Backbone:
């Protein structure tokens, strides 16, 4: 795993995509190739842990928004990601995942 100084040094080659507003580019080469060759396959029904470290104001905004719509923060973030994925593919969230799975993310606290 690269150290924080490695990530900072490489961030100068990144840019924000004007269409999506997402960070693009960079020289960081992840382990996706070695993961395909050596990594364990994800097992159905097992948890997937995603580590995120938002800045204080970002975290506050996400928590407040998730509370407004009465969703757990994890469900709120998954739904936001699914909406972005659907927009990129030019479809609806319901086209990406089964309705039963979608309903699990829309349950109130």
Residues:
């Amino acid at each position: 795993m690269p150290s924080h100084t490695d990530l900072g040094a490489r961030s100068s080659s990144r840019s924000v995509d004007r269409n999506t507003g997402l960070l693009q580019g960079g020289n960081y080469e992840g382990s996706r190739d070695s993961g395909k060759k050596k990594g364990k396959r994800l097992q159905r029904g097992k948890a997937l842990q995603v580590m995120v470290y938002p800045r204080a104001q970002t975290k506050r905004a996400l928590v407040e928004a998730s509370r407004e719509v009465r969703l757990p923060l994890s469900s709120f973030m998954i739904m936001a990601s699914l909406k972005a994925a659907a927009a990129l593919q030019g479809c609806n969230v319901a086209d990406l995942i089964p309705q039963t799975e979608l309903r699990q993310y829309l349950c109130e606290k």
